[in-house]
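Hey all, quick one. A colleague (J.T.) asked me to put the zinc ion job into the tracker so the inputs and the structure tokens live in one place instead of scattered across chat threads. No bug as far as I know, just bookkeeping. Sequence used:
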Amino acid sequence: MFLFLYRIDEIGQVTTAFNGMTKNLADLVRCIAIFFFTMFEIFRGLQGYKKVWYNLDSKCQSFNQRGMVMKIRHLRHATFHLHIQGVTLLVDPVLSPAAAMTPIDNSPNQRRNPLVELPVSVEEVMTADGCLLTHTHRDHFDTAAGEQLPKTLPVFCQPEDRDKLHLLGFTAVQPVDPVITWRNIELIRTGGQHGTGEIGRKMAPVSGYVLKAVAEPTLYIAGDTVWCPEVAETLSIHKPEVIVLYGGAARFNQGEPITMGKEDILRVCQHAPAAKVVVLHMEAINHCLLTRAELNEFIQQERLGGRVQVPADGQWLDF
Ligand SMILES: [Zn+2]
């Protein structure tokens, strides 16, 4: 009897244990189901995130492909920042404060140079991945730039300026002779005439550059030149979409202007009818006599207002 009752009790315990096991098993299955469901939801969420990211990335890529990322920030005279292919090039840096340099010899309007201050700090001007020099006359590369720019900064220049830059201590000078590729940007050096006749010969050599990169508009920085066969040839060969001209009609007391005046700028526009043109090199060095107001009036008169820009110091331009 006792044995029977014991057995009954034993069976009861087994049943209870079995019930407990069944309950635990159900909980376990439920936990596993919740785990997999949660993982599924996380995965779906990640897929959604991936899709959103992919769309954003595609939009950025198509933004790039439209060539909308190139920017220019004009600083002063010929000094500007070029943002292209995710890097910043500092073009023709002059870092001196206003009136730190003597006037240009034998020129009108004898005032100390530069005529105006930089629109931002020298530190901000020097924030660049590389430096591009059209030539090293002091209104394009002054003593302060030679002293203050980091000596390891890549400097792209015409071959004739290499030794001067080495003597100043620059260790990453890269003469463009006539083509160089840097950070997926092709730099092609172009010619020019810094004045006419004997003056033009004495002012030589000067260079310009064409810059080409995937998904960017072709850019031509003409440098210190007047309208001449070298400029015409560059326009016809490279068909630039954006052209930076150094205007100001700079001059000495004798002879013709040594940089572009109104008529030179008009000729560039006529030879590159689809290009956007930016005119710098004005109102900062004493011998540049063409003012922004006078040039803007001419631009309106010639109905070029839609594609010729004359930026203020510090102004950003998008392309
Ligand atoms: Zn100049």
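Adding what we noticed when we looked at it: The pocket of zinc ion is lined by residues 78, 137, 139-140, 224, 246, 259, 281 (CB under 6 Å). The chain has two domains: 2-67, 69-318.
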